[in-house]
Amino acid sequence: MRKKVTFVAALLLASGLTGFTASAAGAAETEPPVCTPSPAWTETIPAVGEPTIVIDNPDYVPATPDQEVVTGYVKWNWTGGPVEATPTPPPGDGWHEVGVTNDTKGDQPGVVHQGNGSASYFFFEPIITIVPGTPAQGEPTIEVDNPDYVPAQTIEHEAVTCEEEGNPPVKPQARVDVGEWQITDLDCEAATHTRTRTITTTDWRWNSSQGAWVAAQPSVTTETSVEPATADECPTGEPAVVPEPAVVPEPPAAETPLPPVADAPAADRAQSASLAATGGGVSPWLAVAGVIALLAGVGATVRASVARR
């Protein structure tokens, strides 16, 4: 049965999109201008306008002058007798003060009128009352801050130095960050697993306003590796086979030297000679030597069999 597990496909897709964005940002990178060294200097920007202005005082109350108010009239009658011409206004000789009135009956005050009755002339003198005015409150104008005023400015410019006259600063090396391996696919039928990791590369771009290299948008790529799966990842269910230990052949045993054959007695030598001539007997010493040779051959055969296993 095929066992296959897929893990972080969404992560790989996001990494590809990020790499595409970083490539587009890198395409817009501009090269720095030629570096021109200059000493430090002070720039002075003059003020614009005046710090304060004079405006009308919105709370100012102007003064009021004294006022003449007519509160009545003094009536005069002429009692000086006939005259050839209209007499001058009273007071004076020939005029008699009649009293105070508020009604002139339509006759103009301050003018001598010729009467039709007992008095040939009459006159209404206005009674003037002075009403005092009021003093001013506050000042007609005030001085306020000018909202359009721009104060003078002083800007200190630092000295510009170049690594080499006429050349911009050297562009730093790109920074490469390698991520950890992650298993993203497992195929137990093929007994393999697929590992994936991301490699983030951050390059540099020139910033004209700062006059320096700044980090650009990182570019992310994906590296994939297919390797054999481990027993823990794809268990077979069969008992483990224990390998047989290697058999190290033993060195051959040293041969035991035969003991020297002593001279047999004369009677034995005569018997051995008789047996040799007639074939009727075997020397005991020869029988012992044959048994030793047989045992040595059996031992060699056993050792060879063990070595072949």
Helical residue percent band: 10-25%
Oligomer: single chain
Q: What is the terminal separation in angstroms? A: 37 Å
* Outline type: rod-shaped
Based on helices, strands and strand pairing, what is the structural class? alpha+beta
Total count of strands: 15
The total of helices stands at 3
Detailed description of the structure:
The chain is of the alpha+beta class and 309 residues long. It has helices spanning 9-27, 266-278, 284-308, and strands at residues 4-6, 41-45, 52-56, 67-78, 95-101, 113-114, 121-131, 141-145, 153-157, 175-178, 182-187, 192-202, 204-207, 212-215, 219-228. Among the domains are: 1-25 and 173-234, no CATH class; 68-130, no CATH class. Strands 1, 10, 11, 12 and 15 form a 5-stranded antiparallel β-sheet that branches. The protein has a 4-stranded antiparallel β-sheet with strand order 5-4-7-6, with no helix packed on it. The two termini are 37 Å apart. 6% of the residues are buried.
How do you describe this structure in short?
The chain is an alpha+beta fold and about 300 residues long. It is built from three helices and 15 strands.
List keywords for this structure.
transmembrane helix, five-stranded antiparallel sheet, rod-shaped, 309 residues, membrane, alpha+beta, four-stranded antiparallel sheet, 15 strands, disordered N terminus
Strands, helices and their partners?
Elements: E1 4-6, H1 9-27, E2 41-45, E3 52-56, E4 67-78, E5 95-101, E6 113-114, E7 121-131, E8 141-145, E9 153-157, E10 175-178, E11 182-187, E12 192-202, E13 204-207, E14 212-215, E15 219-228, H2 266-278, H3 284-308
Antiparallel strand pairs: 1-11, 2-9, 3-8, 4-5, 4-7, 6-7, 10-12, 11-12, 12-15, 13-14
